[in-house]
Design goal:
By secondary structure, this protein is of the alpha/beta class. Among the domains are: 85-95 and 114-261, ANL, N-terminal domain (Rossmann fold), CATH 3.40.50.12780; 523-602, GMP Synthetase, Chain A, domain 3, CATH 3.30.300.30. It is 31% helix and 23% strand. A 7-stranded mixed beta sheet has the order 5-4-17-16-18-19-20, with helices on both faces. A 5-stranded parallel beta sheet has the order 7-6-8-11-12, with helices on both faces. The chain has a 4-stranded antiparallel beta sheet with strand order 21-22-23-24, with helices on one face. A hairpin with a 2-residue loop joins strand 9 (193-195) and strand 10. The protein is globular, with a radius of gyration of 23 Å. The two termini are 19 Å apart.
């Protein structure tokens, strides 16, 4: 942590201060410190007040049951997530409000009102039932960024089937690992998707993955579009594979939502760990929806006429919480885009912002640094005057990227909410409130009301520079690691008694502002995505030429961190440029493109500890 700590000494002398703009504060949803005061006075009553803003079929009898490290929130309560995201908006003016605006990389566009989205979700929920999916059955989703990603997630919640969304950039082997771990009964995929002008062969990847999966009985295939479908052979297997549009054509639009317990499993999402096997993070229904709905409204100051765009992929937790569940629970208009920010030109994002009148923009520091590198001329081509709030997520943002974001995109009038959270926390944990908090470039500022955070050293003593620690349970917290509660306890709760360890370091300045340092365990943060060093090392050692591998993070001016690999070769093997290319390709095949090493260095030997560890 020492190098990162030295870097933070510079941040801790950061003197630039940005109070909330007066024009923003006047109409803000949260404009004073009231939520902090009420949460401080009675944390459970604070969260209960947010739960009461949702629709419940039956009210809870206990707000929290806490037997460390296991929490149950809103015990006895009954609700349904899709009902809260869709049905409850249909009785008033939101019925005809645009819920989802989608643009594909080639420029195709679809818009869904809340009524249309509700109808298609109900139709697909009935299609799932016809395929034998019921409450508790797991469904894997492997789709590009298309409306059907959100629709199928919501349909799963409607029938009470936990979903496990797998990022479309993951390899067939990674997909198979996740399908097998959850025991998915159905896989939902597409014939393909677009990325920077190329076609991602999702169905082909899925077919390869399914060769080693025994639990999947049915595969639903979304036709991405006539042009792509004409170019890709979906290789539909009779009796197993079904076209999404054909299932919908035969399905009723009348589907009552399943009554779910607050602690029923909502979804399983995989994240990298310090050991080779990714962890299936378990999120449940009532507490999760309460916190994502609360944070969406308060952190983004979400108002009825906003057009909200989170640029994440639904395959990551940011997409789950802040594209689908949080915004739709609040009746928002959400923009969703399929492709990259630089296709066909480096102003694609700004073209979308101008075209659809985006008012709230939430992206990653990696993207912001790329925008900086490309130059101001790209956003300057477009009218971005409707932007009123900017957000950052995925990794700590360096002060100069923050300032560029503020000056070039925000025109010095948009508050920036720099948010810290993770797959395991489910929802935002540390953040400014845009009309309340004076912001400082590079600081995530303070815990959200109702969140208890401190910094501890190895033995659990409070310190100004150390490990981030969450001292009280929160509604959207993970409940366990799927099928491995022992790993859950060991990973998150063994460092200190009854205190959650997220794996990040931080510093606290004299004014009580938090400055996140990044990971302090064997997990890299590459372009805001977590990659376990052990995963990449295992993939490299799987190659027949490699006997040992060690992976470290290397700083990168755009991605923050990239993968650097040191390998020793088996006897008789010699390092070469061709082998470097082959090893990089092998990692991509085993894990996915996000894990591709930036650098591969051949070494005669790797240093070992006395116990023989690298």
């Amino acid at each position: 942590m020492s190098e990162k700590g030295q870097g933070l000494d510079v941040l801790l002398t950061e003197t630039r201060r940005f109070p909330p703009p007066e024009h923003f504060t006047e109409g803000a949803i949260v404009r004073d410190r009231g939520p902090y005061e009420s949460a401080s006075a009675d944390r459970l009553a604070f969260w209960e007040s947010w739960a009461e803003k949702l629709d419940w079929f039956e009210r809870w009898h206990t707000v929290l049951e806490w037997e460390p490290p296991h929490a149950k929130w809103f015990v006895g309560g009954k609700l349904n997530v899709s009902h809260n995201c869709l049905d409850r908006h249909l009785d008033g003016p939101r019925r005809n409000k645009t819920a989802l605006i989608w643009e594909g990389e080639p420029g195709d566009v679809r818009e869904y009102t809340y009524e249309r989205l509700h109808r298609e979700v109900c139709q697909f929920a009935n299609a799932l039932k016809d395929l034998g999916v019921g409450k508790g059955d797991r469904v894997a989703i492997y789709l590009p960024m298309i409306p059907e990603a959100a629709i199928t997630m919501l349909a799963c919640t409607r029938v009470g089937a936990p979903h496990s969304v797998v990022f479309g950039g993951f390899s067939p082997e990674s997909l198979a690992d996740r399908i097998n771990d959850v025991g998915a009964k159905v896989l939902i995929t597409a014939d393909g998707g677009y990325r920077r002008g190329g076609i991602v062969p999702l169905k082909g990847n899925a077919d390869e993955a399914l060769q080693s999966c025994t639990t999947v009985k049915n595969v639903v295939v979304v036709a991405r579009g006539a042009d792509l479908t004409a170019k890709v052979d979906a290789n539909m297997r009779e009796g197993r594979d079904h076209w999404y549009h054909e299932l919908l054509a035969d399905a009723s639009a009348d589907c009552a939502p399943e009554v779910m317990d607050a602690e029923d499993l909502l979804y399983i999402l995989y994240t990298s760990g310090t050991t080779g096997k990714p962890k299936g993070v378990v999120h449940t229904t009532g507490g999760y929806l309460t916190q994502v709905a609360a944070t969406t409204q308060c952190v983004f100051d979400l108002r009825e006429d906003d057009v909200y765009w989170c640029t994440a992929d639904v395959g990551w937790v940011t997409g789950h919480s802040y594209i689908v569940y949080g915004p739709l629970a609040n009746g928002a208009t959400v923009l969703m885009y399929e492709g990259g920010p630089d296709w066909p030109e480096k102003d694609r994002f700004w073209d979308l912002c101008e075209k659809y009148g985006v008012t709230i923009f939430y992206t990653a520091p990696t993207a912001i640094r790329a925008f900086m590198k490309w130059g101001e001329e790209w956003p300057d081509k477009h009218d971005l005057s409707k932007l009123r709030l900017l957000g950052s997520v995925g990794e700590p943002i360096n002060p100069e990227a923050w300032m560029w974001y503020h000056r070039v995109l925000g025109k010095e009038r948009c508050p920036i909410v720099d948010t810290w959270w993770q797959t395991e926390t489910g929802a935002i944990m540390i953040t400014p409130l845009p009309a309340v908090t004076e912001t400082r470039p590079g600081s995530a500022t303070h815990p959200f009301p109702g969140i208890s955070v401190t910094l501890l050293d190895d033995v659990g003593t409070e310190t100004k520079a150390g490990f981030l620690a969450i001292t009280e349970p929160w509604p959207s917290m993970l409940r366990t690691i799927y099928g491995d509660d022992e790993r859950y306890q060991e990973t998150y709760w063994s460092k200190w008694d009854g205190i959650y360890f997220p794996g990040d370091g931080a510093k606290l300045d004299d004014d009580g502002y938090l400055w996140l340092l990044g990971r302090v365990d064997d997990v890299l943060s590459v372009a805001g995505h977590r990659i376990g060093t052990m995963e990449v090392e295992s993939a490299l050692v799987d190659h027949p030429a490699v006997v040992e591998a060690a992976v470290v993070g290397q700083s990168h001016d755009v991605k923050g961190e990239v993968v650097a690999a040191f390998v020793t070769l088996k006897g008789g093997q010699e390092g070469s440029d061709d082998l470097v290319v082959e090893l990089k390709k092998h990692v991509v095949e085993k894990i996915g493109a996000i894990a591709r090493p930036q650098m591969v260095i051949f070494a005669a030997d790797l240093p070992k500890t006395r116990s023989g560890k690298i």
